[in-house]
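Hi all, a correction to my earlier message: I attached the wrong file for UPF0434 protein ACFOVU_03140. Here's the right sequence:
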Amino acid sequence: MSAKIDDWLLEILACPKSKAPLRLDEEAGELVCDESGLAYPIRDGIPVLLVDEARSIA
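and the right structure:
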């Protein structure tokens, strides 16, 4: 599953928990926050930035 987020959008998105920048993991289809240890899914090209929907990567 690959995901694509426009660069301009990725620059303004932040983790809702830590407020840290997110990085795109295209292969996993997720936006990852290394600071909070959470990965947010991208569904149908739309980032789901809800802490309850994120999975822990720590």
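Sorry for the mix-up. The longest helix spans residues 7-12.
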